[in-house]
Amino acid sequence: MFLSNPKHLEIIYNMCKKVLTVDAGEDAECHAAKLLEVIVLQCRGIDQCIPLFVEAVLERLMKGIEVQLHDRKMCIIGLSVLMEVPCRPPVLEGVAAQIVPSILLLFLGLKHLYASRLINKPDLLARAGPQDEDQKE
Asked: Which Gene3D superfamilies match (predicted)?
């Protein structure tokens, strides 16, 4: 029913893109990304829309490092799930070359963000309590 009118999908995309490209706040950005994820994973016959969705998400991911750890972790999980979809549409195969480097960039950003937090707030490490040496590395 929802997809019977292409205008519905266009409205959802435009709304999510707007939220992801302006400074709408972390909560709104998470909801917009989740909505796009649900559409990609649950709706069939939207192959032509996936590059636009991925572009909107990648544009958001290219913003500065001021985003929260949770945002980056969720982006990594979402992009990883997207890569594991068993019957990937051909358009997803076409942008796969952009997704993997984006995941690697996110991991690098996480590494820098963790290091920055430890430098600026060394008490975080102390509050973590005794840990296995392997977990600290």
From this structure: Leucine-rich Repeat Variant (1.25.10.10)
